[in-house]
Amino acid sequence: MAHHVNAKPVGVFDSGVGGLSVLQEIRRALPQENLLYVADSAYAPYGEKASQFIEERSIAITEFLISRQAKAIVVACNTATGVAVASLRARFSLPIIAMEPAVKPAVANTKSGVIGVLATSRTLSSNNFTNLFNRYGADVEILMQACPGLVEQVEAGDLMSEDTRKLLERYLAPALSRGADTIVLGCTHYPFLKVLIEEIAGPNVSVIDPSPAIARELRRRLNNANLLSVASDAGFDQFWTSHEPERVESVISQLWREPVDVWSMADGGKKQL
Ligand code: DGL
Fold first, then answer.
1. Could you list the residue range(s) of the whole structural domain that residue 108 is in?
2. Residue 169: which H helix or E strand, with range?
3. pLDDT tens figures, 95-108
4. Are 218 and 73 in contact (CB under 8 A)?
5. SS3 category, 13
6. Three-class SS of residue 60?
7. 3-class DSSP state for residue 22?
């Protein structure tokens, strides 16, 4: 019986393709787990949407993942975490793992005492982030930078273009000119821009991606609940979207670095059977 539950998948979601950066780390840390990923692409980006709407989408997607047998949920989106994690935890009893901007490791890392946090404006104005700011803001200077347009660049698979570079140069300039030596990626889309960010910031700046810590936290939580997969074979990855699959299949394949099939949440995966 226990094995039956352990074989169930982990459900992971984001407004779009950004959470694939978290999914990659989960796949690396937990090779035997079956993974379901939902890109809510019909409604991306979340950054400028009303809180209540993001909360409703988070609940609907969690219900969908549970209907597909999910044994745990990873909210691979900082914006949805900030707005909806409390109501998800109040509503659902399965383990829910969520994002937190990596301010704590950044504070431990900085030597200049200045760190920059890149995120959506909704994340930066969330209670979660305000709490982090209040906890650490007395020790170091925390420069917050909202980055409109970056999520769209990643959704378009545009990771290295001149336009993307110009946006990043603009968003990094204030922190770099104040001597930041540590940059926190506070949105799950941004790790896909890490190469470009490191190139612009130069070798003396550390760029911190919280995804490996989220994958470790998932492993810890599954282990505590006796839910880790006991399979000896590699798990599967299954990709879902609220959009038409054809519209996102190529960017998901690009970011996942192998061709994948994407299923429509609307037809419940009938196509697959
Ligand atoms: N990946 C989401 C995050 O981590 C992007 C938010 C959005 O869709 O604006 O915040």
1. 103-209
2. helix 162-177
3. 999 998 999 999 99
4. no
5. strand
6. helix
7. helix
Q: The tokens of 204 are what? A: 């003396």
Domain total for the chain?
2
The two three-digit tokens of residue 61, written as one number: 């997607």
The model's pLDDT over 232-254, given as tens digits with 9 standing for 90+, comes to 999 999 999 999 999 999 999 99
Candidate list 17, 44, 77, 119, residue with the active-site label: 77
Q: What predicted TM-score, i.e. pTM, was given to this entire model? A: 0.95
* Strand, helix or coil for residue 49: coil
Asked about 187 being catalytic, the answer comes back as yes
Q: Is residue 77 annotated as a catalytic residue, yes or no?
A: yes
Identify whether 55 is part of a domain.
yes
Ligand 1 center from residue 85 Cα (angstroms): 14
Q: CB within 6 Å of ligand 1 — which residues?
A: 14-16, 18, 44-47, 77-79, 120, 123, 151, 187-189
Span from the CA of 45 to the centroid of ligand 1 (angstroms): 6
Q: Are residues 91 and 108 in the same domain?
A: no
Closest Cα partner for 115 from 200, 206, 15? 206
